[in-house]
Amino acid sequence: MTGLPLSARHARPLLPVALVALLAGCGTAERIAQIGSPPPLSPIENPTAAPDYQPVRMPMPAPQIAEGNANSLWQTGARAFFRDQRAAEVGDILTVSIEIDDKASIDNQTQRSRSGSEDAGLEAFLGYEQSLDAILPQAIDNENLIGFESSTSNTGSGSISRGENIELKIAAVVVQILPNGNLAIYGRQEVRVNHEVRDLEIAGVIRPEDITSMNTIGYEKIAEARISYGGRGHISDVQQPRYGQQLYDIIFPF
């Protein structure tokens, strides 16, 4: 240490700081700061205030003017005689039942074979066919001047097998009322177990008539449904390749 210049002795302690700054530029400083701690949960926010939120735009029918009914106990547009407790306004909450049990199996085989043969000759051409010996000194058969043969054979096979089984329930919030009365909903749920956070997110468009009397709706009745179920934490980090490996898989052409 005494043999190093003064500037070098001061620069060496700065190396870890420079390394941390470099990692921060790669977006890993936050993850490094969380080493030994469980991943934090996201704060509860207004989904419509998110920077990437986009209002739902769907095909709409022509607007209709509601006609009043004089001396009637039935309110125009009401879905029941008594007050409806189901979600109908922006900010109302309903429960979405997700029960996905899909299986698919595809097995294709293709085999193709083709062969061809062509022969061409010149038996007579105004007597000049005999002059071919002067042009081509090799032995020539005028009846078999050109011969062509080809054969191809292709064999292909493919197999796909997948299965998905998800049973969840999540509360969603009405974030928008479309002009035709349909409701745009959005819901998110986070569950942390030890050092792993499981994220469930759902969004889509529903009809008020499809909401049951228990204020629930099945996922199969959600139009333009977007369902995301994943996680983040130690287990998720181990299950995915490293960043360098992912980059290599993208740019490597072979």
Helical residues, percent: 10-25%
Radius of gyration: 36 Å
What sort of overall outline do the alpha carbons produce when their principal axes are compared? elongated
Q: Tell me the total number of β-strands.
A: 6
Largest sheet: 6 strands, mixed
Count structural domains: 3
Report the oligomer.
single chain
From the helix content, strand content and strand pairing, which structural class follows?
A: alpha+beta
**Low-confidence runs of at least 5 consecutive residues:** none
Count, helices: 6
- The main sheet orders its strands as 5-1-2-3-4-6
Describe the structure concisely.
By secondary structure, the chain is an alpha+beta fold.
Write a structural description.
This protein is an alpha+beta fold and 254 residues long. The protein folds into three domains: 1-33, no CATH class; 47-56 and 76-104 and 163-251, no CATH class; 106-159, no CATH class. It is built from six helices and six strands. The chain has a six-stranded mixed β-sheet. Strand 3 and strand 4 (196-206) form a beta hairpin. The two termini are 49 Å apart. The model has no long low-confidence stretch (mean pLDDT 76).
Topology:
Layout: H1 6-11, H2 14-25, H3 29-33, E1 93-120, H4 132-135, E2 146-177, E3 183-193, E4 196-206, E5 216-218, E6 223-233, H5 234-239, H6 243-251
Parallel strand pairs: 1-5
Antiparallel strand pairs: 1-2, 2-3, 3-4, 4-6
